[in-house]
UniProtKB/TrEMBL annotation, chain A:
<dbReference type="GO" id="GO:0034475">
    <property type="term" value="P:U4 snRNA 3'-end processing"/>
</dbReference>
<keyword id="KW-0694">RNA-binding</keyword>
<dbReference type="GO" id="GO:0071051">
    <property type="term" value="P:poly(A)-dependent snoRNA 3'-end processing"/>
</dbReference>
<dbReference type="InterPro" id="IPR049469">
    <property type="entry name" value="RRP40_KH-I"/>
</dbReference>
<dbReference type="InterPro" id="IPR037319">
    <property type="entry name" value="Rrp40_S1"/>
</dbReference>
<dbReference type="Pfam" id="PF15985">
    <property type="entry name" value="KH_6"/>
</dbReference>
<dbReference type="GO" id="GO:0005730">
    <property type="term" value="C:nucleolus"/>
</dbReference>
Automatic annotation (TrEMBL), chain B:
<dbReference type="InterPro" id="IPR015847">
    <property type="entry name" value="ExoRNase_PH_dom2"/>
</dbReference>
<feature type="compositionally biased region" description="Basic and acidic residues">
    <location>
        <begin position="368"/>
        <end position="383"/>
    </location>
</feature>
<dbReference type="Pfam" id="PF03725">
    <property type="entry name" value="RNase_PH_C"/>
</dbReference>
<keyword id="KW-0963">Cytoplasm</keyword>
<keyword id="KW-0694">RNA-binding</keyword>
<dbReference type="Pfam" id="PF01138">
    <property type="entry name" value="RNase_PH"/>
</dbReference>
<keyword id="KW-0539">Nucleus</keyword>
UniProtKB/TrEMBL annotation, chain C:
<dbReference type="GO" id="GO:0000177">
    <property type="term" value="C:cytoplasmic exosome (RNase complex)"/>
</dbReference>
<dbReference type="GO" id="GO:0071028">
    <property type="term" value="P:nuclear mRNA surveillance"/>
</dbReference>
<comment type="subunit">
    <text>Homodimer. Component of the RNA exosome core complex (Exo-9), composed of EXOSC1, EXOSC2, EXOSC3, EXOSC4, EXOSC5, EXOSC6, EXOSC7, EXOSC8 and EXOSC9; within the complex interacts with EXOSC3, EXOSC8, and EXOSC9. The catalytically inactive RNA exosome core complex (Exo-9) associates with the catalytic subunit EXOSC10/RRP6. Exo-9 may associate with DIS3 to form the nucleolar exosome complex, or DIS3L to form the cytoplasmic exosome complex.</text>
</comment>
<keyword id="KW-0539">Nucleus</keyword>
<dbReference type="InterPro" id="IPR050080">
    <property type="entry name" value="RNase_PH"/>
</dbReference>
<keyword id="KW-0597">Phosphoprotein</keyword>
<feature type="domain" description="Exoribonuclease phosphorolytic">
    <location>
        <begin position="135"/>
        <end position="199"/>
    </location>
</feature>
Length: 244, 431, 220
């Protein structure tokens, strides 16, 4: 039923493109007919019995029947469950205001840290980086962040960022970095030992043993935006040999 | 819109890197970023790329009356626009401290250094002189706007040509470029500004700071100099104490940078001149990088016109002809008459006026000739509603909204007027 | 670029586009039609001033920056035309209480400026990844004194023409989203110009597709 969608996977779509679903002409007699469900991700919208594309990018799919448009945008729009790197801008009473690149500052309660109680407040200063997760993120409400998972553990979240470098890349590159078995990440690992924090909001934080190495990694990542895998491998090879 | 705040870790890292003589983009302490100069199709239009910072300058001229105290000198006018395109922190039409500073510095660099022969801009002494206006637009802010602006401004002034004028007795004629070749401005020297930023109370120094370096710097020193090593203006801001040796060292560095940049500008001007002489293509359109993945160009394309005339004819034919005859008069209430669209009752009932407006709103979105008929019907419906005197205002609203519904949809440009209509009907309901 | 018109020889000047060429804006594009060129930058969805906040959709602001001097009435009316077109195609209700800012900078005006604004705006909005229900493009037609239709006229052709019309056309149904006209013309001529613009828009939409495809070619 969604053959037309599957057909287009990996192709470039533009806003205004649409898919219409007609019931199939032939009904298989052997298979039981069950209603198929399709999950539309970013860039796809349902309108009646049609599916409209609202962003330009490449159509991607994931089993079973998940479709979305992968685009190279820069501006972040908060989504529930995503982990981001935020910058604390205001400390007011019992919430922190955090800038995470969206249209509105997110709030982060001081109780939403591991082990935090009313007495035992976390040590957070204005200008600190927090790696945190969205619990509320929708268009009509103020976004809210937490630094604990559902069982109250930090799970890698919290205040961080002593000595490393923060920089911005496109959201598309972030998704490529976060993809399971990302070749980009594997290649980076082979260069030198380093720490890397990836925020879904397009912010990256890197720390290597020296300033020089930190800068190399940051500049490599910034330049991989528009490169084929082959070009990237060559660049990394040169970096590893110390040519850069 | 606010700018992204600077995180503490960024500040610490930048300062640490500067201590180790490292910069974010791998430059050395005294290195400039890559400078690229391109010209527009007009005379006096220049684009400067300084790394990611991008600036455009356009020179224009007009004849004005001179200032009273300087009757035979032309006027130079500089205007730096901090367009919101360059950075979200810049606001349209607001004079910020930064823009005042930049304007001031540029004026001192280019006007007060007397690099332009303003007396040659005089047409009739005390009556008519040329005013040369330099508009500088910041297109992308990645630090060191001043240097980029000064390079763009002086290059554009060198590139600019003003129309020739002839004076016969009292009459002044400005010749168009087709009749007489326009003439370039006479410029004595080429002042260029070089910025130095200081960190840790002046312990460390960087040339050509980028945006993030500018955010953590303690002080800034701008030196405008020409290639003869004459200092045209010097300004220190940020309130740091500088030693005499530091200023001397900066001026030495500036002289090296200025001679490099001067050479680059001269070369760029020559290249452009050659391209224009050869009659080839030049200007911004030609400077678009073809090899970039984000750029694409398409040659001149013909548009098929085969059946256009027929289609247009068909549409015109299919469309209902506008009513030629005056429709019969409608009597909404005894004692009132209304004919067609032309006559409106002027009995000053408030409700009626509103109805008119609503009609207009819905009309806008359709082709005029088709709607004329519909509006007619529409009005009849409404007016008949009035006669019946419905106490329940809800029914009335249904009548008003209905003809609008089919208009909604993506094809309407005037969605705002749509809303206006809806809002109005709500108002009525509350009444 | 002489267009011999009236027959079957209407053409668009060579056109080009570069996307995301500026580092600061969320989306940017430069669009070139012959010698006319425009640079567009988009910021958003970003924080909105309380005074401009709209509770159910994003506030779109369009700023046109002329090359010389400050924005005047002419620029205001162009801003309005572009804004209304963008509002019709953007799904602004998906980002309520936020601001979208579109800045258009004239780089060179050699005729058909409004259509170049529209094309640059569309490419920049696409680059910014804002949700849109359809794409749009702008086509300018000039009617010469002898009745010939010229598409994408140069400044000289605009000056000689009897009437000038710019249409914004959407990509799904090729309907007219916005029209701006100057001068006098007959109904038949208007329909003819719309039909020509619709034909021309197909070329531009194909170009949009090609350039986006080229852009993503390495990440396919």
């Amino acid at each position: 039923m969604f053959s037309c969608l599957k057909h287009k996977v990996g192709e470039v779509l533009l806003p205004g493109d649409e898919f219409s679903f007609q019931p199939e002409d032939t009904i298989s007699l052997t298979d039981t007919v069950k209603p198929e469900k399709v999950i539309c991700g970013p860039g796809l919208r349902r309108s009646g019995d049609r599916l409209l594309v609202s962003k330009s990018g490449v159509l991607r799919t994931k089993q079973p029947n998940m479709f979305w448009v992968d685009s190279q945008q820069k501006r972040y729009v908060p989504a529930k469950g995503e982990t981001v790197i935020g910058i604390v801008t205001v400390k007011s009473g019992d919430v922190f205001k955090v800038d995470c690149g969206g249209s509105e500052q997110a709030s982060l309660s001081y109780l939403a840290f591991e082990g935090a109680t009313k007495r035992n407040r976390p040590n957070v200063q204005v200008g600190d980086l927090v790696f945190s997760q969205f619990v509320i993120a929708n268009k009509d409400m103020e976004p809210e962040l937490v630094c604990v998972d559902s069982s109250g553990r930090a799970n890698g979240m919290g205040v961080f960022g002593g000595g490393g470098l923060l920089f911005r890349v496109s959201l598309g590159l972030i998704r490529r970095l976060l993809a399971p078995q990302s070749p980009l990440r594997a290649e980076l690992q082979q260069l030198f030992p380093h720490e890397l924090v990836i925020g879904m909001n397009g912010r990256l934080w890197v720390k290597a043993s020296s300033v020089q190495q930190t800068l190399i990694i940051a500049n490599l990542l910034e330049s991989c935006e528009n490169m084929t895998a082959e070009q990237r491998r060559q660049l990394f090879r040169r970096a590893a040999q110390g040519a850069l | 819109m606010k700018d992204t705040p600077l995180a503490n870790c960024e500040r610490d890292f930048l300062l640490k890197a500067i201590e180790e003589k490292k910069r974010l983009d791998g430059r050395q302490t005294y290195d400039y970023r890559k400078i690229k100069i391109t010209f527009g199709t007009d005379y006096g239009c220049c684009f400067v790329d300084l790394g990611k910072t991008r600036v455009m300058a356009q020179v224009s001229c007009e004849i004005v009356t001179p200032k009273e105290n300087r009757p035979n000198e032309g006027i130079m006018f500089f205007n730096i626009e901090l367009s919101p395109m360059a950075s979200p922190a810049f606001e349209q039409g607001r004079q910020s401290e930064l823009s005042v500073n930049l304007n001031r510095q540029l004026e001192r660099c280019l006007r007060n250094s007397k690099c332009i022969d303003t007396e040659s801009l005089c047409v009739v002494s005390g009556e008519k002189v040329w005013q040369i206006r330099v508009d500088i637009h910041m297109l992308n802010h990645d630090g060191n706007l001043m240097d980029a602006a000064s390079i763009a401004a002086i290059t554009a002034l060198y590139h600019f040509k003003r129309p020739d004028v002839g004076i016969q007795g009292e009459e002044v004629t400005v010749y168009p470029p087709e009749e007489r070749d326009p003439i370039p401005l006479s410029i004595y020297h080429m002042p260029i500004s070089v910025s130095f930023s200081f960190f840790q109370q002046g312990t460390y120094l960087l040339v050509d700071p980028c945006e993030r370096e500018e955010r953590v710097m303690d002080g800034l020193l701008m030196i405008a100099m020409n290639k003869h090593r004459e200092i045209c203006s010097i300004q220190s801001s940020g309130g740091i104490m500088l030693l005499k040796e530091q200023v001397m060292r900066c001026s030495k560095i500036a002289s090296v940078k200025v001679s490099e940049i001067t050479e680059l500008i001269t070369k760029a001007l020559e290249n452009d001149k050659k391209a224009r002489k050869a009659g080839g293509r030049f200007g911004f359109a030609e400077s678009m990088p073809q090899e970039r993945i984000t750029a694409l160009k398409k040659d001149e394309t013909p548009v098929e016109m085969t059946d256009v005339t027929e289609t247009a004819y068909d549409i015109v034919q299919k469309a209902e002809a506008p009513p030629q005859t005056v429709p019969s008069p409608v009597l909404p209430v005894p004692g009132m008459g209304q004919v067609g669209l032309g006559l409106q009752n002027s009995w000053g009932l408030e409700d009626d006026e509103e109805e008119e407006e609503e009609d207009d709103d819905s009309v806008e979105e359709q082709e005029e000739k088709v709607t004329k008929m519909e509006v007619e019907q529409h009005r009849k419906e409404q007016s008949s509603g009035d006669v019946v005197e419905i106490s329940d205002s809800e029914e009335e609203e249904v009548i008003i909204l209905q003809p609008e519904i089919p208009n909604r949809g993506p094809k309407n440009a005037g969605s705002s007027s749509d809303q206006k209509g809806a809002a109005k009907s709500k108002k009525r309901q509350t009444k | 670029m002489m267009e011999v018109c009236g027959s079957s020889n209407v053409s668009l000047r060579e056109f080009g586009c570069e996307q995301s060429l500026l580092s600061r804006p969320d989306g940017s594009a430069s669009f070139i039609q012959g010698d006319t060129s425009v640079l567009a930058g988009v910021y958003g969805p970003a924080e909105v001033k309380v005074s401009k906040e709209i509770y159910d959709r994003a506030t779109l602001e369009v700023l046109v920056q002329p090359k010389v001097g400050l924005p005047s009435v002419r620029e205001r009316s162009q801003e309005q035309c572009v804004r209304e077109t963008c509002e019709a195609s953007l799904l602004s209700s998906l980002h309520p209480r936020s601001s979208l800012t579109l800045i258009l900078q004239v780089l060179h005006d050699d005729g058909s400026l409004l259509s170049c604004f529209l094309n640059a705006a569309c490419m920049a909005l696409m680059d910014a990844g804002l949700p849109m229900s359809c794409l749009f493009c702008g086509v300018t037609c000039a009617i010469h004194a002898d009745g010939q239709i010229i598409t994408d006229p140069t400044a000289a052709q605009e000056k000689e023409s009897r009437a000038l019309m710019t249409f914004a056309i959407d990509s799904t149904e090729h309907k007219v989203l916005m029209s701006s006209t100057k001068g006098s013309f007959s109904v038949h001529e208007l329909q003819q110009c719309i039909a020509v613009s619709q034909k021309a828009s197909e070329k531009i939409f194909q170009f949009y597709r090609d350039s986006v495809r080229r852009r993503y070619s390495k990440t396919l």
